[in-house]
């Protein structure tokens, strides 16, 4: 189980982003984007209020801000 966690951390923390073809297929942000038929979460009208970035802390807020400007 711990090995799975380490694999997840390794792939998620170095994520190139959905638009660059990357990330873990288990990423909650990526899953949500796919479920809403978006190629990226930047296309989502609910991005600013999205809590799926919370686990990233301050970096999550920065990412949402950058994605909102696209």
What report would you give on this structure?
With 70 residues, the protein is mainly alpha-helical. It is 44% helix and 0% strand. It contains three helices and no strands. The radius of gyration is 12 Å and the shape is globular.
Q: TL;DR of this structure?
A:
This protein is mostly helical. The protein contains 3 helices and no strands.
- Percentage beta strand: under 5%
Mean pLDDT across the residues is 80
Helix content: 40-55%
Count up the helices: 3
Instruction: State the end-to-end distance.
Output: 37 Å
Shape: globular
Order of helices and strands: HHH
Uncertain regions spanning at least 5 consecutive residues: none
How many strands, what sense, and barrel or not for the largest sheet? none
Derived from helix and strand composition plus strand pairing, the structural class reads mainly alpha
> What's the total count of β strands?
0
Question: Radius of gyration, rounded?
Answer: 12 Å
SSE layout:
Layout: H1 2-13, H2 28-35, H3 58-68
Supply the key terms.
70 residues; mainly alpha
